[in-house]
Amino acid sequence: MGAMNGLLDHSVILGIPQDHPNRTPKEKCRYDVCAVIHQDHVPESARIGTSSGGRYAVFLLDHTKEAVSGFWKTVFSEIEKNNLIVREQPIIERYTLQKVNDHLCEILVPYNKEDGNFPSSAYADSDQNCGGDELSR
Description:
The chain is α+β, with helices and mostly antiparallel strands. The protein is built from 2 helices and 8 strands. Strands 1, 2, 3, 4, 5, 6, 7 and 8 form an 8-stranded mixed sheet that branches. It is globular and about 45 Å long. The two termini are 25 Å apart. The relative contact order is 0.23.
C-alpha cells in the first residue's frame, strides 16, 4: 500500500461487490476496489464515485479465511437477532494500512434501523467514507 508516494498510506480502501452472488453467475460477478482519498490527490485516469450512505453495522475481524468464513455463517442471524433489516445495497469490505498490517479487516453491512436494538457502537452513519465505530467478532 505504499504506492503512489504514500498516497494510499492514509486512505481507506473499499471492496464493493456490484452483483448479488446468489443472483449472478460467478463468472459474471463484478467487484470494485475503491480508494477514499482527498479530492486534490485523485489521478486524472481515476473514476470518481460516491456512496449512497446510510447506516452500517461494522464488524472487525481477523483477515483469515477461517474468520471470514465464520463471519458469513453467523452475520445474518446476528442482524436478525437484533431486529435489523439489511438494506438492498452491497456489503462493503473496508481496509486501512494499519488494519492490514494487523491482519484485520472490517465488513460493513447496510441496514435500516427500524425497530433495531443493535448497540450504538456497532453501527456507523455514512455519506461517502463509510466511517464509524467497530464491533469485534
